[in-house]
Design goal:
The protein is mainly alpha-helical. It is 76% helix and 0% strand.
Length: 201
């Protein structure tokens, strides 16, 4: 299609350079007649001779990408003569780093949220298991089993007997302690009775 176009109308490069566009023109496939500004920018920044030499040194399948790169670089250089496309690349790299930071922060927040949900789920599951276990063995509207009542009664009776025995032991011990002092008192009284009274002279 590029050959048919070049046969009817010169390519943008040949038209800009005011020369005849030959069938083997190296610019024709990449600078069609309807894109004159594309070649004008490339020629202004790099020069037509340099572009011709570059395209001749490349393989045919690599030339289209090379021309697109030259056209983009030339356009950026005319917009920003100091930095050219480097300024755009720097801005894009800064935006990429900021997006990576934002993504890392979002992942951290998401991990915290997931951990919170996991802990809440485990706590709810544990509470439900405890509630189910309690109602399985001790239903709300059902009295306690008889063997538990008997066991509780026997335990209470044993404790009462132990308390009574302890009280009796304490009472007996108290009585014995009190009686331990009585013989000496009785003996003392008997001794006082056996004393010979002294008559006054």
């Amino acid at each position: 299609m590029a050959a048919s176009v070049s046969s009817t109308s010169p390519c943008a490069a040949c038209k800009f350079l005011r020369r005849k566009c030959l069938p083997e023109c190296v610019f024709a496939p990449y600078f069609p007649p309807d894109q004159p500004q594309k070649f004008a920018n490339v020629h202004k920044v790099f020069g037509a001779s340099n572009v011709t030499k570059l395209l001749n040194d490349l393989q045919p399948q690599q030339r289209e990408d090379a021309v697109n790169s030259l056209a983009y670089e030339a356009d950026m250089r005319l917009r920003d003569p100091v930095y050219g496309c480097v300024g755009v690349i720097s801005i894009l790299q800064h935006q990429l780093r900021q997006l990576q930071i934002d993504l890392s922060c979002a992942k951290t927040e998401l991990s915290k949220y997931q951990n919170t949900i996991t802990i809440s789920s485990l706590a709810a599951a544990a509470a439900h298991h405890h509630h189910h276990f309690h109602h399985q063995f001790f239903p709300v509207n059902q009295p306690a089993p008889p063997h538990l009542i008997r066991s509780a009664s026997a335990t209470g009776a044993t404790l009462d007997n132990d308390n009574n025995n302890n009280n009796g032991y304490n009472a007996t011990g108290t009585l014995l302690s009190m009686n331990a002092f009585r013989p000496s008192t009785v003996a003392g009284a008997a001794t006082e009775d056996r004393r010979t009274p002294v008559e006054p002279s």
